[in-house]
Amino acid sequence: MSKPRRQRTQNTQPKAVPSSTRSRSIWLAGIGLVALALVSYGVWEFTTLPSSELNPDPAGVGQNAAPTDTNAASQSAESKETTRVSVRAPGSEQESFIAPLADAYRRIDPTADGWQTEAFHEATNTQLHHLADLFKDEIDDTLLEQLVDQDFKGSGFQPENLDEVFSDATIEVKRGIAGDQDSADIRHHGPDGLKAAIESFRQLYTDGKIARVKLKPFRILLEDDVVSTTLYFQSVGSSESGTLQVNARWTLEWSLNENDLPKLRETELDFYETVCHRNGPELMFSDCTASVLGNVAAYQQQFLRSTDEWRSKVSRDLGLDVVANHGLALGDVNGDDLEDIYLCQQGGLPNRLLLQNSDGTLRDASVESGTDWLDYCASALLVDFDNDGDRDLAVAQEWRILLMSNDGTGRFQLEFGISSKAQSFSLTSADYDLDGDLDIYVCGYNPTTSSQRSGAMGEPMPYHDANNGGRNLLLRNDGNWLFRDATADVGLDENNTRFSFAAAWEDYDNDGDSDLYVANDYGRNNLYRNDKGQFTDVAADLDVEDMSAGMSANWADVNRDGRMDLYISNMFSAAGNRITYQRQFKTSENEELREQFQRHARGNTLFLNTEDGFQDVSEQAGVTMGRWAWGSRFADLNGDGWEDLIVANGFISTADSGDL
Questions:
Q1: What are the DSSP E strand ranges found in 260-370?
Q2: Which residues does 625 contact at the CB level (< 8 Å), separation at least 6?
């Protein structure tokens, strides 16, 4: 359930300037640094605590042990004899690590601390990869024999009857629910039966060819008489009616073999849905990136190059990081009624302002506009701060907020800058005090060094309800490019030490002013009700704290009742769903805490705004499984007057080479 996190020291470099006014020699700053770390390969040895303190807890009983006084342990460790501990890690022949890492590497094996369910998952995961291959490729009888128990039985992978739940000129959605199958439903037996069931399913697609198949196991049951996996299934490909996507939920039972992988004994279909885009074999959306950006030099020379490549060329001291969060802003900056794009970039790489041409292509105006900042930038806004009719620019660097005025032609000048109270991740703007100009809310993530209150290795503590993050900032626009920190004055300092990713303004209570929802990573969110310019956090009272890994928030009236509803992007964690529902998970804690961890792994959330308050309708609406979700946006994609949902998700998309 844990995830990488950008943890950087507060930037103390001189005032930032655009790259067009500073020497380009910074591109050479990192050359030669890569070789410095490559002097040790093979056996690495570090002084550690005695080996008696490093033994793992195979039975998992340590959960109930009395807590250790870490201060006392630290003091006593100095007087103890030290020793060296060697631990075998993936990808290495022999390596040694300090105590916490040695223990972490031991726990790569889930059986080391009693998680038999995860060990079983690893074994069945190999078989599930084989099962996915049977759906995509020609069926290999040898592979089939290795996967399937001779006593296999199942009703198939599609129900006989489907109900149409939505249909228009371009999209058709049908659903069918199965489960609790009796003997009359069992149509397939043995390996040949599974083969027939797969071949029948493949006939949904043109020539039986499926472009993509994904299986995601999220629940495991290990009982004396039942060993099962519950998973999400998805397949996509061309069909006679158009592009077809099948979404399903299966329960698979396995037979255990002492010296072999588990074998598939039974399949049960719990849920089934088809989504068909009717415009022939063409996809609903076409990737036009290359055609729009093909003439922009930065597209080939900067955007298409991986972070790994830039890390070998640019010093990390400039702000380049493998775990990075960079936003963009849209707006017409030169008054030609065409939307332009401003892209935030890694430290050491210039931000880019791309102007739209009349034919829809883009051209690079970064240098001439004066907006090609080289500092690490996470977020930007293109809005009119000075009420002169053109879009100005706000840029969130790691520890600074910069505001630039637009002369109306797309040329910008720095007007205002202020240090933020935390590493800034995103910006949002609204006229919260109804004085006629736009104010800015800054979402902070990691705290400054001086105010940091972190746990081990600077991590959010506790993981599921962290309250040691950076402070968010409200900048009140007082006119003439003067902005003041009004955070405490208006009540927004309440519950203001979370790890905030994003925020969204909306008048949820229809009283005429903008309220503010803040999505926080590692725990509870905030809903600040605005009462004539003064804010109160009412998230707990209205039950919209949504304790999870908040990444984004978005408002829309999804049921068209005149009240704005709320959608939050979180992280769906298959591993988290498997582990937090196991009996051995946090056995010493109360049920409420266990439920909080389960909620953390559930995924995205939709709150319906009703007369009786907000209601969580996420599971009924089928919107929780957005995978590792980042941004989300309501938009009417098919023009029928109802708001649809777009969720951007994913993390590392390169092939897994196995090289740590």
A1: 263-277, 328-331, 340-343, 352-356, 362-364
A2: 232, 572, 603, 604
pTM of the complete model: 0.80
Neighbouring residues of 182: CB distance < 8 A, sequence distance ≥ 6 = none
376-396 pLDDT per residue, tens: 999 999 999 999 999 999 999
- The mean-pLDDT minimum among 501-505, 511-515, 604-608, 625-629 falls in 625-629
For residue 394, give the H/E element and its range. strand 392-397
The residue with tokens 């060329």 is: 313
User: Looking at this protein, which amino acid is placed at residue 130?
Assistant: H
Tokens linked to 652: 């590392």
How far apart CA 61 and CA 125 sit, in angstroms, is 27
Q: What is the DSSP string of 577-645?
A: HHHHTSTTTTTTS-HHHHHHHHHHHH--EEEEEETTEEEE-HHHHT-S--SBEEEEEEE-TTSSSS-EE
> Nearest CA to 344 among 418, 397, 422, 275?
397
Decide which of 78 and 645 is more confident: 645
Q: How far apart are CA 576 and CA 595, in angstroms?
A: 12
Neighbouring CB atoms inside 10 A of 217's CB total 19
Q: Determine the Cα–Cα distance for residues 401 and 410; give it in Å rounded to an integer.
A: 20
Are 480 and 398 within 8 A, CB to CB? no
Q: Tell me the C-alpha distance between 54 and 44, whole Å.
A: 17
- Residue 200, SS3 per DSSP: helix
How far is 272 from 179, CA to CA, in rounded Å?
A: 10
Strand runs labelled E in 204-241: 212-222, 227-239
Least confident of 148-162, 330-344, 481-495: 148-162
The gap from C-alpha 189 to its chain's centroid, in whole angstroms, comes to: 41
Which candidate, 112, 276, 117, places its Cα nearest to that of 206?
276
User: pLDDT by residue (tens digit) across 220-265?
Assistant: 888 777 788 999 999 999 998 889 999 999 999 998 877 788 899 9
DSSP tag of 83: B
Ranges 104-118, 367-381, 430-444: which has the least confidence: 104-118
Amino acid identity for residue 24 in this structure: R
At residue 164, what are phi and psi to the nearest 5 degrees? Answer: -75, 125
Q: What are the contacts of 59-63 at 24+ separation with CB within 8 A?
A: 59/114, 60/113, 60/114, 60/115, 60/584, 62/113, 63/586, 63/587, 63/588
Model confidence band, residue 6 (pLDDT cutoffs 50, 70, 90): low
Cα–Cα distance, 623 to 632 (Å, whole number): 11
Whole-angstrom CA distances from 144 to 13, 109, 232 are: 61, 28, 21
How many angstroms separate the Cα of 445 from the Cα of each of 276, 325, 329, 398, 448?
41, 11, 20, 10, 9
**CA separation for the pair 378, 422 (Å, rounded):** 13
Q: Which two tokens stand for residue 279?
A: 């415009």
Q: Is the peptide bond before 4 cis (omega within 30 degrees of 0)?
A: no
How far apart CA 518 and CA 526 sit, in angstroms, is: 5
Q: How far apart are CA 531 and CA 529, in angstroms?
A: 6
Place of tokens 């790569």: 108
What Å distances lie between residue 364 and 21, 371, 566, CA to CA?
17, 11, 36
- Name the token pair of 192: 């040949």
The answer to whether 267 touches 154, Cβ cutoff 8 Å, is: yes
CB-CB contact of 128 with 215 (8 Å): yes
